[in-house]
Amino acid sequence: MKSIQARALAIATLILAASGNAWSQPAASAPSSMPGASAAEANAASPVSERKANRALRRQVYAAIGKHKEISAGNIGVTVKGGTVTLNGTVTDASQVNQVAEIAKGVAGVTSVTNKLTVQKPLGGM
Questions:
Q1: What residues form DSSP beta bridges with 84?
Q2: What's the Cα-to-Cα distance from 83 to each of 47, 48, 63, 111, rounded to whole Å?
Q3: Which burial class, exposed, middle or buried, applies to 85 when counting CB atoms under 10 A from its CB (0-12, 13-18, 19+)?
């Protein structure tokens, strides 16, 4: 009877030691502490700083569009992910579709622009 209890205690101790060791492993989100991590992984931006950079670039694109008074930016949506800008929404004139894309391309930090703008005439306008 005592040998069974001793074995059970030894097995429980081994399981506890193994699970404690697993919990003390470095986090996968810390690439610099992992052996064999590439330089690109070590220099990768954290998700929080990447979101901040995307928001800042989005504001810069909106500001650049806003400098052009002939463009109604109220119906234009701008999304940014890693330097790639996507333009959604509507403009009032067909010439503004490409003009807005060119403005966005001219903003520092923009690597590419996906233009999904469409033309919608204002109500009552000809």
A1: 81, 112
A2: 14, 15, 16, 5
A3: buried
Q: CA-to-CA distance for 6 and 16, rounded, in angstroms?
A: 15
Q: Which class for 100: exposed (0-12), middle (13-18), buried (19 or more C-beta within 10 A)?
A: buried
Question: pLDDT band for position 42 (50/70/90)?
Answer: very low
User: Which domains can be identified in the chain, with CATH numbers?
Assistant: 2-42 (no CATH), 47-119 (3.30.1340.30)
Q: What is the pLDDT of residues 53-98, one digit of tens each?
A: 999 999 999 999 999 999 888 899 999 999 999 999 999 888 999 9
- State the burial class of residue 92 (Cβ atoms within 10 Å of its Cβ: 0-12, 13-18, 19+): middle
pTM score of the predicted model: 0.61
